Amino acid sequence: MSLVLSESGNNAVEMFATRIDVQWDFRTNTGPVLFQFERVDWDRETGLVNTRGYERTIRHDIAGLIGGEYAITDPFTGEQLVEPGWKLMAMIKAATERVWDAETAPVDERTSGGGESVAVTL
C-alpha cells in the first residue's frame, strides 16, 4: 500500500505517521511501537495544508520491526538500498544518547557567565 492516496497537479492526499511512540523494554528489546497516522491534503509546491485529520493508530512490536529489512532510497544519490532492521533501533538509541548528552552536559562555572545557560552544539 502506498502512503500517497491521490495526486492531482501539485496537490496530494497522503498518510503521514505524524507521531511515532516507541515503548521500548530495555530488558528484552521488545515493546509496542504506535504509529499515529493523519490524512493530509496539501500542496507539495507551496507546502500549504488544505486539510489534515487523525486517521488511526497502528501498533507493531519492536522485535518485528528490528527483525526485518527495509528498502530505502538514498536522498542524495537516488540509489536503492536494503538495510537491516537492527539499524533502526541502533539509530534511535544513538539519537537518544546524543540528545541526553546535550541536555545534561555539566555546566563549566568558569565559562557559564554567572549562571546563564551555555549553548551546546550537536
Number of strands: 6
Broad shape? extended
End-to-end span in angstroms?
A: 37 Å
Helical segment count: 2
C-alpha Rg (nearest Å): 20 Å
Widest β-sheet, arrangement of strands: 1-2-3-4
- State the share of residues found in helices, binned by percent: 10-25%
Largest sheet, in brief, is:
4 strands, antiparallel
Which class best fits the helix and strand makeup?
alpha+beta
Beta-strand residue percentage: 35-45%
Order of helices and strands: EEEEHEEH
Give average pLDDT, whole number.
Answer: 89
Low-pLDDT parts are: none
Write a concise keyword list for the protein shown above.
alpha+beta, 122 residues, extended
Give your account of this protein's structure.
The structure is a single chain. By secondary structure, the chain is an alpha+beta fold. 19% of the residues lie in helices and 43% in strands. It has 2 helices and 6 strands, in the order ββββαββα. The chain has helices at 62-66, 86-103; strands at 4-8, 11-22, 32-43, 49-61, 69-73, 80-84. A 4-stranded antiparallel β-sheet has the order 1-2-3-4. The chain starts with a strand and ends in a 19-residue tail after the last helix. The mean pLDDT is 89.
Fold topology:
Elements: E1 4-8, E2 11-22, E3 32-43, E4 49-61, H1 62-66, E5 69-73, E6 80-84, H2 86-103
Antiparallel strand pairs: 1-2, 2-3, 3-4, 5-6
